[in-house]
Amino acid sequence: MAPSARHRSSVSTGGAVLRWCVLTVTPESPRQDDVLPLLRQADDFALALYPAENYHALDVGDLERPGVTFLVARVDGRSLGTAAVVDGGDGSAELRRVFVTDAARGLGVGRALLVAAEERARELGAHVMRLETGLPQTAAIAMYERGGYRHVPRFGPYAADPTSVCMERDLREAPGPLPRWILRPALPDDATWMAELRAVVLRPDLERLGRWDPVRVRRRFLDRWAPSARG
């Protein structure tokens, strides 16, 4: 799987202060305390869109079966999304259990899960990735289309489900880049490390001017820290 990015920095857009965050996707257990709630959220989200008989989810036990790789997306260690890769054993793999929390939607987490899942499928020897989603999930369908997936006839357990949308992608085609950074609004507890970063940047110039005072530099930044939007 792709290694974690390590560097962090911040950026101001002129409105809200934003910061770069480390994004990782790695194989993990689905039974972790911060992962089980994501699976429940995914169930609640889907069952609000589909009748129970049209919901084709894998449960926790299924996700631990041989041939299944369960992936967790984390931003600075916080779990924000999941995906599973099921080895078909015939040169194909199926993408299952894709979910991204509301807070992480639109930030590239879904794309990162998709690219990492494809990488895992290749490691398993698959040359085709298949998936099923549903007609109401237009944002998911659009993401898959942007990722090179094409619509195919409904297959397997989805063949008789009129709400299902089935897609696949040839994994022998060049993969897209894996997103490793996202932007989110800055939080109050970001102030400390940002003050340290500012001090590092300013020190050479202030020392040349004979005005280097690390306490004063940090204090001035913290006194003016305002992570909310400024208008």
TrEMBL record:
Domain of life: Bacteria
Stored Pfam families: Acetyltransf_1
Source organism (scientific name): Clavibacter michiganensis subsp. michiganensis
An annotated Gene Ontology molecular function: acyltransferase activity, transferring groups other than amino-acyl groups
Family annotation (Gene3D superfamilies): 3.40.630.30
Keyword flag Transferase: yes
Protein name: Putative N-acetyltransferase YsnE
Domain N-acetyltransferase, chain residue ranges per copy: 23-172
Gene name as annotated: ysnE
Keywords carried by this UniProt record: Acyltransferase, Transferase
Cross-referenced InterPro entries: Acyl_CoA_acyltransferase, Bact_Acetyltransf, GNAT_dom
Acyltransferase as UniProt keyword: yes
